[in-house]
């Protein structure tokens, strides 16, 4: 199931803002051109605006009320709650637009719970910086956290949340900081060089849930090989030890080497591998149950539509080859609407290779030092040996 409808593009902070709503429209058009929406087993459903009680599964009533006030009166911001700031400018209808994105992830959770979907995708979601009482980093309501909480309310005992955005998933982590039922794993550029400045190895969860917050704080410049080495050195082991019943993942594609806001060096090929790896973990440990969301990503024409179309394709069980041609009708649309040449292939034509952690720890490698810091901080809390498991 894919949560998508054109009304989702109402989440629009205005001209020049990096969070361009065209990201969603272009992704939907590319997925359609690739035939993904026409597959017999794939349904595309437009989400409704989430209700206040639904939003209050993770947000305070006071915050929801504040968003409603600013939404109705954009000239009266509430900067203490992150509303009407440079990152999150106020706009008329902001509540409804943000709550519709939230509704998409709640729809995904509902269909996982009732068994009508095994995999569900909301590429318009992934608003992982929003906290219980505050908007932050282009994010008003935290739809990913809402999906996790809805699963828990529906009887799921454990959820693993995997966040591969270039930015630390701080909002989702904070919401479940003291909840031992939720394992939050975030792989991101180091807070030393990127917003929000958090997400280091020693951030491991609250007193009631130590070890359930996991952070891989990767150095700026990390490319496919280092990123995938880090992922496979930490994530599968912890997911296996934790034993989730559902995986919820956030697939911000701002880790790409051409993203204008970040400093990682991944390719679309590497991002596709990450999506595939998360899907395989869901198959192995969760009976396939998987909710995937979008997130950041600010190279709107070249990267976001391809990366998220790969995500949809993997979730649909019909992966698109990296050497496949980008459909001509989609390329023509991009040129006509934006006056820009679209990529010719679905991948970046790179050599995708990484060293397995079993090869051994190299203390001279900055990525390896990051991995070992995380393994030392968290692995023993799950009964794992940081050196060998």
Write the layout of secondary structure elements.
Elements: E1 2-3, H1 22-33, E2 44-45, H2 52-55, H3 61-72, H4 94-114, E3 119-122, H5 143-153, E4 159-163, H6 170-175, E5 182-189, E6 213-218, H7 224-242, E7 246-250, H8 268-285, E8 290-293, H9 304-315, H10 328-338, H11 366-378
Helix pairs in contact: 1-9, 4-5, 7-8, 7-11, 8-9
Account of the protein in words:
By secondary structure, the chain is an alpha/beta fold. It has one domain (2-382): Histone deacetylase domain (Arginase, Chain A), CATH 3.40.800. 36% of the residues lie in helices and 9% in strands. The chain has 11 helices and 8 strands. It has helices spanning 22-33, 52-55, 61-72, 94-114, 143-153, 170-175, 224-242, 268-285, 304-315, 328-338, 366-378, and strands at residues 2-3, 44-45, 119-122, 159-163, 182-189, 213-218, 246-250, 290-293. The strands form 2 sheets. Strands 3-8-7-4-5-6 form a 6-stranded parallel beta sheet, with helices on both faces. Helix 8 (268-285) links the parallel strand 7 (246-250) and strand 8 (290-293). Helix 1 crosses helix 9, helix 7 runs parallel beside helix 8 and helix 8 packs parallel to helix 9 (304-315). The two termini are 35 Å apart.
List keywords for this structure.
single chain; 389 residues; alpha/beta; Arginase, Chain A; six-stranded parallel sheet; two-stranded parallel sheet
């Amino acid at each position: 199931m894919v949560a998508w409808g054109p009304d989702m593009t109402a989440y629009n902070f205005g001209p020049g803002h990096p969070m361009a709503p065209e990201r969603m429209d272009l992704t939907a058009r590319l997925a359609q051109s690739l035939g993904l929406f026409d597959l017999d087993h794939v349904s595309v459903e437009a989400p409704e605006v989430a209700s206040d009680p639904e939003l209050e599964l993770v947000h305070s009533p006071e915050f929801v009320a504040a968003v409603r006030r600013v939404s109705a009166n954009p000239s009266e911001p509430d900067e203490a709650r992150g509303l009407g700031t440079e990152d999150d400018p106020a706009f008329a209808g902001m509540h409804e637009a943000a709550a519709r994105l939230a509704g998409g992830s709640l729809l995904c959770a509902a269909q996982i719970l009732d068994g009508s979907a095994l995999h569900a995708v909301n590429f318009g979601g992934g608003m992982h910086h929003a906290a219980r009482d505050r908007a932050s980093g282009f994010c008003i309501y935290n739809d990913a956290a809402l999906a996790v909480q809805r699963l828990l309310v529906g009887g799921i005992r454990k959820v693993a949340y995997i966040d591969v955005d270039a930015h630390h998933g701080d909002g989702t982590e904070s919401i479940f900081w003291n909840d031992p039922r939720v394992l939050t794993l975030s792989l991101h550029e180091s807070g030393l060089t990127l917003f929000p400045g958090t997400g280091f190895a020693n951030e491991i969860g609250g007193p009631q849930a130590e070890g359930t917050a996991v952070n891989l704080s990767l150095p700026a410049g990390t490319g496919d090989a280092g990123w995938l080495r880090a992922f496979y050195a930490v994530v599968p082991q912890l997911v296996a030890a934790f034993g989730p019943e559902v995986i919820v993942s956030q697939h911000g594609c701002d880790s790409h080497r051409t993203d204008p806001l970040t400093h990682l060096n991944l390719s679309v090929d590497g991002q596709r591998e990450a999506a595939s790896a998360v899907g395989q973990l869901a198959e192995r440990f969760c009976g396939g149950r998987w909710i995937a969301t979008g997130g950041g990503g600010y190279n709107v024409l070249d990267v976001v539509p391809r990366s998220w179309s790969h995500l949809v394709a993997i979730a649909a069980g019909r992966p698109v080859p990296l050497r496949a041609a980008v459909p001509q009708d989609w390329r023509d649309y991009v040129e006509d609407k934006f006056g820009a040449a679209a990529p010719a292939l679905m991948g970046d034509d790179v050599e995708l290779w990484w060293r397995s952690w079993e090869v051994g720890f190299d203390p001279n490698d900055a990525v390896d030092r990051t991995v070992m810091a995380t393994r030392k901080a968290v692995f023993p809390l799950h009964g794992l040996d940081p050196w060998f498991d």
